[in-house]
Description:
Blueprint (H helix, E strand, L loop, with lengths): L5 H10 L10 E5 L3 H13 L3 E3 L2 E6 L2 E10 L4 E3 L1 H6 L4 H23 L11 E5 L7 H11 L5 E5 L5 H10 L2 E3 L22 H8 L5 H12 L5
Parallel strand pairs: 1-2, 1-6, 6-7, 7-8
Antiparallel strand pairs: 3-4, 4-5
Helix pairs in contact: 1-2, 2-7, 4-7, 5-6
Amino acid sequence: MLYRDRRHAGQEVAARLRDLAGRSDLLVLGVPRGGVVVAHPIALALGAPLDVYLAHKLGAPGNPELAIGAVSADGQVLVDEELARAVGADDEYLEAEVARQKREIARRLARYRGTAPPQAIKDKTVILVDDGAATGATLLAAAKALRLAGPRMLVVAVPVASEEAAEKLSAVADRFVCPLVPEFFWAVGAFYQDFDQTTDEEVIRLLHDPALGKSRAAGREERSAPNSA
């Protein structure tokens, strides 16, 4: 299977989540940047509010595309100790890489949300979305951090994942949805016809899509209510 682009991938994932449509406690969270493009058609199809949830991979020395761990906006850090040692990532390197990614997360949050608060997560059915999972490190860190916020149910949804990542994510999610888990996996982008880099501007446009406005407003009101988390 090849997805035409991230939007097509999101539509395919949404088709497998239709049983959740219409739930008043539903919240879709996209991992920027590409995960937001996948999450947008899911939120539209299910009638759910859409927000971002940031978790950045920790790149290996000399190979930033190789994830040796991840850090989330909540400050949760996950490191694959065995892989980190194998690629020469010592404590000093990891400390600097974590600090760098935390700065980038803060920059993106300010750009995407401005002064708006995040959606409430406690007691929600949360669907965490990315455009794919190679090692699963980024989503694993995000899922573990989200658990601490007390969702009613945590769904992790991606269009494609390696068998290793699918196994890890299935273990931390209440429900794992992935239409494509190929036996031979080499890169997320290999399963898309169009896998161009997503821009911050596109993420902002999707998050502020008027079609999502009604659901987003409802989520913001709950967030500001006295009894919300």
